[in-house]
């Protein structure tokens, strides 16, 4: 297997993977979406709520705030040795929120949540939770736990996790004077004209939509678009809870564990 990083920053990772097949790529994609744990608020104790939204609505909104996750310190509640319904410091983070509007209407933002662990905080301080009118109060305690995307989308660590075949494009080597329809129609601007010749400018942008092939008026078609059977481009975009490369690492670890478990069960029968 060959892996090449095409693009990488704090929330985005785009890699080319060669010598793999669709089942493996799909397993990684599904595990990243549904099995890699992340932190989210799971329980809220309302102490005072005189705001216009019901307790349930506020709890739901709090649950959807992405929280920076630390997979090395915290355990999944079901795997934690405390076996407690309320959790322990190894499987739970407590947030408090005490907001009040003394003058006029104001918005309460995620940055006002106070965490008992300074490393587990909302990814952004600017997520609106509720608006308070003059005299209204919101006082609550919220508990965050690790969880999995398969149980609730709030625990999904990625906003995008998708793969596509590695595109393969052949353009005419000689001048193609007929038209430039393939260049103009491409929605991803893959082609460009250089000295009257068609050139592939951005191969990786190709989504294999085949618009360029259809647009070509000559028979046989002068542009040929296909894909490599065992090469893929994987794109992971996180919502900020974990770095994208960590999500991929965790996904491969989980796949490995699942395969070992499967092997043991098959062997035991
Ligand atoms: Zn615990």
Structure description:
The chain has 269 residues and is α+β, with helices and mostly antiparallel strands. Helix content is 21%, strand content 34%. It contains five helices and twelve strands. The protein has helices at residues 22-34, 55-63, 181-185, 211-215, 244-268, and strands at 2-8, 12-18, 38-49, 93-100, 106-109, 114-115, 128-132, 137-147, 158-170, 191-194, 197-200, 224-238. It has a four-stranded antiparallel beta sheet. A four-stranded antiparallel beta sheet has the order 3-8-4-6, with helices on one face. Strand 1 (2-8) and strand 2 form a beta hairpin. Helix 1 (22-34) packs across helix 5 (244-268). It is flat and about 75 Å long. Zinc ion binds at residues 80, 82, 84, 87-88, 90-91.
Number of helices: 5
Small-molecule components bound = zinc ion
Q: Classify the helix fraction into a percent range.
A: 10-25%
Instruction: Characterize the biggest β-sheet.
Output: 4 strands, antiparallel
Our Rg estimate from Cα atoms comes to: 25 Å
Silhouette: flat
- Strand percentage: 25-35%
The overall average pLDDT, rounded, is: 92
- Return the structural class: alpha+beta
N-to-C series of helices and strands? EEHEHEEEEEEHEEHEH
Strand order of the largest sheet: 1-2-12-9
The rounded distance between the terminal residues' Cα atoms is 32 Å
Which stretches of 5+ consecutive residues score pLDDT under 50? none
Total beta-strand segments: 12
